[in-house]
Write a structure and sequence with these properties.
The structure holds two protein chains of two kinds.
Chain A (H helix, E strand, L loop, with lengths): L4 E4 L9 H10 L4 E6 L2 E7 L9 E3 L5 H6 L10 E4 L4 E4 L15 E2 L4 E7 L2 E6 L4 E6 L6 E2 L4 E7 L2
Parallel strand pairs in A: 1-2
Antiparallel strand pairs in A: 2-3, 3-4, 5-12, 6-8, 6-11, 7-10, 8-9, 10-12
Chain B lengths: L3 E4 L3 H14 L2 E7 L6 H5 L2 E6 L10 H10 L4 E3 L9 H9 L3 E2 L4 H8 L1 H11 L14 H11 L3 E9 L2 E6 L5 H16 L4 E5 L5 E9 L5 E13 L2 E7 L6 H17 L4 E9 L5 E7 L6 H8 L3 H9 L16 E8 L11 E2 L2 E3 L6 E5 L6 E2 L6 E9 L2 H14 L1 E3 L5 H8 L2 H4 L7 H5 L1
Parallel strand pairs in B: 1-2, 1-4, 2-3, 4-5
Antiparallel strand pairs in B: 6-7, 6-8, 9-10, 9-12, 10-11, 11-14, 12-13, 14-19, 15-18, 16-20, 17-19
Helix pairs in contact in B: 4-5, 6-9, 12-13
Classes of the chains: A mainly beta, B alpha+beta.
Chain lengths: 158, 444
């Protein structure tokens, strides 16, 4: 595992956007990066860090303050991750030949099934906790996921 | 031999299993909680899977998540370490049903030895002496009262499913029995989900001596000598040593024979420990069998040169032991101190961030620890943070070496039991090898 490298920006400098932090992580091939400035903390964890082309995983900002601070339109900080409530295998559809529960761009209602996480032959349906739009699906069908891993990025609809 | 093993534990024992696997060329997967995501075992394992939140019941005790983690990582076997699920017969059974090898004894052996009343019967049947006491669980406080009256005081009331010092009370006179019975029942119900109790004669000035056994799947069993674990505080072991000081050769031989008889009676496979009380006259009595690797296993490894975790893994994979009793050689003396993140005066846990960690080194010194500078000792789990083990030619040299090792150890940020250990090592009765279970509670 790559070493953690906490990065601190000097006081007075504007906090970076999430995109900038993701770029840093990819450019320097870091498994994890944490940036703190003026009470805003952004942490980016990449699932398969050294593997080429792996999508960086953006974790929920550590402080509510970060959400407000990183609001500009180009950032993804307003997106809310849907996390795996258990370790298991991620499935996008109820059956291998069925169509997926959701696709990127779909608008979902609160309580709508988004995917299945199979643990010990039990199919656990994962539901949306709130209404929103699926912006990104972060995990491939059939891929193992661990507890707390982000599965989707959702844009909340108010 | 296995290609990949999942470790369903944390802290120093998880690291211990990773070390054994690395030397054997086996890949490791650590199943961990969110609280341990930045821990040393997670860093050192080949793969890691987060299985749940900090609370053990939702992570380290969550059987579906652990089995699931083994399944998604193609692990062929699970090492349960000690504590947590290590003596959970249902877990061992589920592993078996899922085609995963549980690195330990059979679920049947775990179940038999896990019920203390049943274990006692098995031991008695196998010819191991047991402390006089109730035959099976007590029907009620009246039965306890009449039995205690006939055996004479002091007596000890214990939870049938108990362990780790919970659910037990020493009763010195008749008046205290009813209250002790009620307290134990409540504690046992809350801690173990079973309020069955039994009663034993309390052996005064006893020493706690345990025998390490190993058994393979072909029925070959041998012992690896004894450990004296009399230095305890509130039934928690703090220092262990091997060999046990001042034991007559015939007492030793008797202990080994009784331990093997108990192990044979449950067809014991893997590493296990048979615990005895030894009184002043060196009469000994079976207490219980621990069906797992013990915290204090390194002292046995130091005097025998046998890697117990490696043996557990080899045996689980079906390999025969490959050596006989007379090939086991005992050399010198080993002592282990359990360093807990605890206030040394009051023994209350002291979780927090470790700012400095300088482990001891030098000749004959071994450190089993998951500590690193900057590590935060989480409040969710037990407080053991390091085991310091020394090996020397004899007991006096081992005590001097341990004193030297503890004196050079630096742990800052959390309080530890090291000051207590240093006091203990200078205690005349300890130096004379006369520690008994009761004495330390009073004098140190």
């Amino acid at each position: 595992m790559a070493a953690r490298r906490p990065v601190r920006t000097p006081g007075g400098v504007a906090p970076p956007t999430v995109d900038q932090v993701v770029d840093l992580a990819v450019r320097h091939n870091l498994a994890e990066i944490e940036v703190e400035a003026d009470g805003t903390r952004i942490r980016v964890v990449r699932e398969h860090a050294p593997a080429a082309g792996a999508a960086p995983r953006v974790e929920a900002p550590a402080t509510p303050l970060a959400q407000a601070a990183a609001a500009p339109a180009e950032s993804t900080a307003h997106l809310v991750p849907v996390e795996a409530p258990m370790v298991g295998t991620f499935y996008r559809a109820p059956k291998p030949d069925a169509s997926p529960f959701v696709s990127e761009g779909d608008v979902v209602k609160e309580g709508q099934v988004l995917c299945i996480v199979e643990a010990m032959k039990l199919m656990n349906e994962i539901e949306a906790k709130a209404a929103g739009r699926i912006v990104k699906i972060l995990v491939d069908n059939g891929q193992p996921v661990e507890f707390g891993q982000s599965l989707f990025l959702m844009e909340p609809l108010r | 031999m296995f290609h990949k093993i999942l470790i369903a534990n944390r802290g120093e024992i998880a690291l211990r299993v990773i070390r054994a696997c690395r030397e054997m060329g086996i890949r490791t997967v650590i199943a961990h909680s969110t609280a341990d995501a930045a821990s040393l075992p997670v860093r050192l394992a080949d793969e890691s899977v987060c299985i749940g939140p900090p609370e053990a019941r939702s992570s380290y005790l969550n059987i579906p998540s652990i089995i699931s983690a083994a399944a998604i990582t193609d692990s062929e076997a699970i090492h349960p370490g000690y504590g947590l699920l290590s003596e959970n017969a249902a877990f061992a059974e589920i592993c078996r049903a899922c085609g995963i090898t549980f690195i330990g004894p059979s679920p049947e052996a775990i179940r038999l030895m896990g019920d203390k009343a049943q274990a006692r019967e098995m031991a008695k049947h196998a010819g191991a002496p047991v402390v006089p006491g109730s035959e099976g669980p007590l029907a009620g406080v009246d039965e306890a009262q009449s039995l205690a009256d006939s055996m004479g005081y002091p007596v000890i009331v214990k939870a049938a499913a108990g362990g780790g010092g919970r659910g037990m009370r020493i009763v010195r006179e008749r008046e205290g029995l009813a209250r002790a019975y009620a307290t134990c029942q409540a504690e046992a119900g809350a801690a173990f989900g079973s309020s069955e109790l039994y009663l034993e004669k309390f052996v005064e000035e006893a020493r706690h001596v345990e025998v390490q056994v190993l058994g393979d799947k072909n029925g070959m069993r041998l012992h690896l000598g004894e450990r004296d674990c009399s230095v305890q505080r509130r039934h928690q072991k703090l220092l262990e040593e091997s060999p046990g000081p001042n034991l007559a050769p015939e007492t030793r031989a008797g202990l080994y024979k009784a331990a093997l008889a108990v192990a044979h009676s449950v067809n014991y496979v893997s590493a296990g420990t048979v615990e005895f009380l030894v009184d002043r006259q060196e009469q000994f009595y079976f207490i219980e069998m621990n069906t797992r690797i013990q915290v204090e296993h390194p002292v046995t490894e130091m005097v025998t040169g046998i890697d117990l975790v490696r043996e557990q893994i080899r045996i689980a994979s079906g390999e025969p032991l490959g050596y006989r009793q007379n090939a086991v050689r005992f050399t010198g003396h080993a002592i282990e101190c359990r360093i807990n993140a605890e206030d040394p005066e009051h023994f209350v846990p002291s979780p927090g961030r470790v700012t400095t960690w300088i482990p001891p080194g030098g000749p004959g010194t071994r450190v089993d620890s998951h500590l690193m500078a900057g590590y935060t000792v989480p409040p969710h789990y037990d407080s053991l943070i390091a085991k310091i083990i020394v090996h020397a030619n004899n007991r006096a040299e081992a005590i001097a070496r341990m004193h030297r090792a503890l004196s050079e150890t630096v742990i800052e940020g959390v309080k530890t039991t090291i000051p207590y250990h240093l006091k203990l090592l200078a205690d005349p009765a300890f130096v004379a090898g006369e520690s008994t279970l009761a004495r330390l509670e009073q004098s140190l």
